Amino acid sequence: xxxxSQATDGMDSVPALLQRNATRFADRPAYxxxxxxxxxxxxxxxxxxxxxALALGLINLGVNEGDFVAVIGRNRPHFYWSMVAxxxxxxxxxxxxxxxxxxxxxxxxxxxxxxxxIVEDQEQVDKLIEVQDGxxxxxxxxxxxxxxxxxxxxxxxxxxxxxxEQGRAAHYEWIEDLKARRAKLTYDSICVMLYTSGTTGxxxxxxxxxxxxxxxxxxxxxxxxxxxDEEVLAYLPMAWVGDFIFSIGQAYWCGFCVNCPESPExxxxxxxxxxxxxxxxxxxxxxxxxxxxxxxxxxxxxxxKWLFDHFMAHARRVGPAILDGKSVSGMxxxxxxxxxxxxxxxxxxxxxxxxxxxxxxxxxxxxxxxFEFYRSLGINLKQLYGQTEASVxxxxxxxxxxxxxxxxxxxPGVEIRISDTGEVFYRSAGTFEYYxxxxxxxxxxxxxxxxxxxGDAGFFEDGSxxxxxxxxxxxxxxxxxxxxxxxxxxxxxxxxxxxxxxxVVFGNGRDACTAFINxxxxxxxxxxxxxxxxxxxxxxxxxxxxxxxxxxSHVEEVNRSLxxxxxxxHCQVHRFLVLHKELDADDGEMTRxxxxxxxxxxxxxxxxxxxxxxxxxxxHTTTEVTYEDGRKGAISATLRIVxxxxxxxxxxxxxxxx
Amino acid sequence: xxxxxEGYTTEDGRKIGGVVMEMKNITLRFGGxxxxxxxxxxxxxxxIRAIIGPNGAGKSSMLNVISGFYHPQEGEVWYQGTRRxxxxxxxxxxxxxxxxFQNIALFEGMTVLDNVMTGRxxxxxxxxxxxxxxxxxxxxxxxxxxxVVEKVIDFLxxxxxxxxxxxxxxxxxxxxVELARALAxxxxxxxxxxxxxGMNVEEKEDMSRFILDVNDEFGTTIALIExxxxxxxxxSDRVVVMxxxxxxxxxxxxxxxxxxxxxxxxxxxxxx
Lengths: 658, 272
Fold this sequence. Notes:
- The structure holds two protein chains of two kinds.
- Chain A is 40% helix and 22% strand.
- Chain A is α/β, with parallel strands linked by helices.
- Chain A is globular, with a radius of gyration of 26 Å.
- Chain A starts with 13 loop residues before the first helix and ends with a helix.
- The longest helix of chain B has 19 residues, at 137-155.
- Chain B is an alpha/beta fold.
- Chain B contains ten helices and twelve strands.
- Chain B has helices at residues 59-66, 89-94, 112-118, 128-133, 137-155, 171-184, 201-218, 229-235, 253-257, 260-267, and strands at residues 8-9, 15-16, 19-30, 33-44, 48-52, 74-79, 82-83, 97-99, 189-193, 221-225, 238-243, 246-251.
- Classes of the chains: A alpha/beta, B alpha/beta.
- The A-B interface holds A 35-38, 147-148, 150-151, 262-263, 265-266, 269 and B 12-14, 146-147, 150-151, 153-155, 157, 159-160, 162-163, 213, 216-217.
């Protein structure tokens, strides 16, 4: 593929886009953040001034071209400015997960060799100081929130506003340097480095160039016809590629406004106040919202409950068809319009999704029921398939061709091929440059022709040309008798029950499948409250016989539905247990993006896994847990192991009939 | 002993100023019961001062004397260099002394925001009529006070419950809302009556951090009563120990910890 190092219209870096927006959209909002209960707003022209002041301050502080600048905090305009300011001075921003524990942070900080860090508050400063001894390169920390930091040694610690102030004071000294550095940026210069969360092994630093980010943003914006009028709510981790593409890439390309919530807890309120037109969330967010709606409907009066159930049934029947523009009878349309007036409209408004024109879910498979629920309300929720290495986009679902079991057609400019082993490969303008300081991994992931292995197994569906993903290629295994074992598929089926938060299915190389299950404390807790069941802790609730009974019924339902599946009928769950603790990223059991780490879990809970297969009725175990502040403790429990009924496998002709 | 005007520096490097409040030979009786017997101690500018003691030692009575709710039969209360005549609690509040209660005393049906706004009553000057027509001064005042309140809400991290009625909140959060209301008054002395009572470890840690942050950020002098010895010893700069209405110890946490009378009062002593 021949690639020029210049974009056609001179928009070849994010800072260049900023300059364009500052003149073209000068008076339009670029950032909003709710603070002290009020939405504060910055226009593109104001944002450009803020970023310039910070960039000058960074030069003044000694940031060189090619330096790495770590950015650690929740979604706030200051951190988006920090990333663009770092790019403007020729440095490379590295956003990190703000909830990472100190040792995780130490690894990444050491690996990228950042000399500067721009962080949110005392918590992050403390973590960096804690890992300081092992790091020799970190020179200056800039923080936004001064609370609790007054007594710290300020030789190497600076307030964000002070750095900006110094930048403004040193305007004439550095402005020419800043302009020169900005002019040097090309399509090939590095835009950002993002660490993959890594379901296995250490995180890898994915280097993305301006070309990757801008091309991916451009083509995806065109695909969904995004304009300068979109509103988005930035609430997903800044270290995640999705947020970078949506809140910087597409926002700068289109010139739309990025809204930052007041605090993570107020996200739902803020979502409702902003009413985004373009919304992105992992399935988990939609699941939680749906669970909350259902819990509240359980508590509603009988008439309201009846009304809700009645109209939702209607919406499920005709809603998706109406959304896809298919023909529906006049009576159905009328009833849907009525439902929209009384139920769907108010509900969408409460969810904060009333204005959503384009909504995406990605990261994990979403349950068909959940997906259909939102679509039937008239929310244009679609799926996309992507990864950090592709600057997000590999496939997208076009409007009107949305289904829960596929991930859509190749995104514009993306080529896809399926290897002989069934693994999905892609090549695009968004394909990453390399893994930082890791040529071996780069070589094994990306071949000289630019094809990248996704690590996922999938196939193109006949007829529609949509891609279907089966599972992580390395998770797909074989049972003892050689039949295919696809754990994720079964886990997703289990997770669609509001009571089940997380599930881990085992069975690779064994003759039957078993599962670990995490209950959802909100859903099960609400149920317990309504049924007068007292409990003091997660552990106690998780071990309650009635809870086990409920979970058992869910597992058996899943088994029945699996029995109808010709490919996976043998993956029914024979035995399961409900874990005594929630799987947690702090304990290394999940990634920061909340994907289960199978290897770690089966090693850590080895005793439980053995008990699942040796037929014992219960097991006593002790588990080490890490608290949020990094201290360790241990919890012990006796877990009951439950046998679930396995459904008889349906005859082949019945399946074919479906 | 230190001179009244002279300050000291704490172990963690905070500068503590001179005496702002002094209790001189306070005695408080309820009929025949002597709740407080001839107690004297002082509170200095910017310090965290704890009053501890076993049940029935007279701690809450002492706090009520400071807040003007009880009037001692004997003794004097000196505040900012002048002797304080017997006052009503609201007059004491006007002098810049705010408090929280052991049993939460919030308006359960009102939202968190409204509850915290009541902490600004002292600063609202507009009359009933002006408030009712809601123009000019009343509006300006409300906006200015709301700003202060929002800063407190931000400081105590309760933005997510801003519009939630207090009655629906869990206990730990109600305690925090009470602290917010006291802080909204921008007090120079903050009295906390058992701020951690009934909390779990995590809630206690949060509350401790907020108390330290309030002291650090606003320089507020804090007097607190607390049962949890660990918390008291970690938080406070100086501790008064009471037992049966008498003062049996006064000093830094270390001094108090090694005081034989205190050990006897807490652990009991064998009588031969």
